[in-house]
């Protein structure tokens, strides 16, 4: 059926307008769906970032708890050893006097407590040291080892600065002459420093 061109237009106009309207609605729906998807993706990315940030905070908190646990064990060990807080000079003096009774000629001197040079106070705590100088003649090296072991059993942390052992030059006192310097270390509040 051959219809003239002008007669086709009225027949096609309705379906073409419907097709054009459907195409515009389809494009609009596709655009709306794209906007919806982009918005949903942005919200999903934001939620993932928040979850990631929260997971990072949880991991940091766990690490801090692990460190706190380790520091608590260290603190308990140092506290039990008598390093934290005031010095235990009475125990030190009692030990040294007992050693002096057992070892004639033993001389010692405990210096005043001072902040350890070069170590700054941190969080209100300071590392302190008291110098101990000891000189005596032991029958042999075992006497020095026993003395040293006794010092390490006392409260506080004893660190050897220097120790010199030589054969005794005196014929009336054979043995080993021991001349040592130690630092007795303690941790206390920075305000607990003893003025010199």
Automatic annotation (TrEMBL):
PROSITE patterns documented for this protein: PROKAR_LIPOPROTEIN (PS51257)
Protein name as it appears in the record: Fimbrial assembly protein
Species in which this protein is naturally found: Jeongeupia naejangsanensis
